[in-house]
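Quality-control log, excerpt.
Job 1 of 2 completed; input and output follow.
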Amino acid sequence: MSYIKLTIVGDGLDPTGENTPSITRDIVINATAGIIIDLTSRDRLTYSDGLLIWPSGARMELDARSRDEIETENRKGQIMSDIIMTGRAFFEMVQIREAEAQARREAAAMVSDLAEAPLPIAAE
């Protein structure tokens, strides 16, 4: 897994409606797993439309640079997730094809064993 620590800047919006301009917070993002953690409160955050949202309902409207950094990390995480899923799908496909090939080999062996087997006395 890859993690990145970011210092983000934005305007804080309290659940009561109070606005606090120019807040700086340190966060850690594991974009592959879709996890954002606030290092101050240790809360797991949600990111949506340029806003970081705390479980308490507090929000932070990010500045353009912070928004771009988070969106870039999320895109990189999505690519990594797609690669992992593609690798898993390929592995599963290989397993299925190996099982089918083994079944064909076993069927061919059974047919060749029957062809080489001596005929019963009644058939002679």
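Job 2 of 2 completed; input and output follow.
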Amino acid sequence: MSRTTTTIETTTGTAGTTGTGTSGETAGTAGTMTTAQVIERFNEAFTAHDPTLLAGLVADECVMVSVQPAPEGTRYEGLDACLGFWQELAADTNTAFRPQEVFVFGDRAVIRWNVYFGGGEVNEVFGDAHAGSAWVAGVNLMHIRDGRIVEALGYSKSP
């Protein structure tokens, strides 16, 4: 069984493990979620298969590049495109998303993850290259501004 570790590093050099993301990181404005909080809720949407948790996390100007097709992925621009992509993926109960590690550095985050496929059916997001796979490993590079995701770049290992 995999374990999830959230590691927070701030520009002051403070590092630690936390589930709240409060190790010295400041929010953009009062009531704005920190980068760690945004990433924690983002990951929970996928682990719990609850796409409603993604509401309010994506900026109007968000740009997201998916893991497939390799090597460039598919580019999605804007709130509707990015949110729609992630909500569909989060709702897919045939996949099991398991974050392995999360690193937060100010307004940036790195999510190292595994996705497991149930019933031998690979989600179309991961493409035909993974058709014979039970799982895939990957990483997302995230940029958060004012408590919302403005950029997400996805990469995965290809068989």
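Post-run check on job 2. The two ends are 22 Å apart (CA to CA).
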